[in-house]
From TrEMBL:
Annotated stretches, region: Disordered: 1-20
Membrane-spanning residues: 25-45, 51-70, 77-94, 100-120
Biological source species: Corynebacterium meitnerae
Name of protein: Uncharacterized protein
Keywords of the record: Membrane, Transmembrane, Transmembrane helix
Lineage summary: Bacteria, Bacillati, Actinomycetota, Actinomycetes, Mycobacteriales
Amino acid sequence: MPSTQDIPADAETDEQPNRSGWQKATPVIMVLAYVLVPLILIPAFGSDKALIPVLVFLFGNAAVAGFIDGWTFRDTFSLPILAGVGFWLAKVLYFNDGTFLYALGCAATAAIAMFAGQALSKEPQVSA
């Protein structure tokens, strides 16, 4: 069994930061938007013409929330999973059973946008 002397000092304090303040709001707002916005879009455009606006919203919501979360917090798998769960809730409420594959697309879109936001949020290193 390794003693505490064998463990590097930085390994003991290497904890990931938790969400704070408005960082906690991003996943909640995303899931609420998945549940509430189709309720507005479908009647506003009519059920036969709402396909394109709803698809743009579904993937746009995942992309915007993922980018914001990556930019302000860090890259995690929690937000893409929540994007899939949020779409699943919307599917149960508004869409037919054949649309379950969009959950994977929403999760992938959120993950790609989150990694892009994380990459763009890092400040460039200045060489001495």
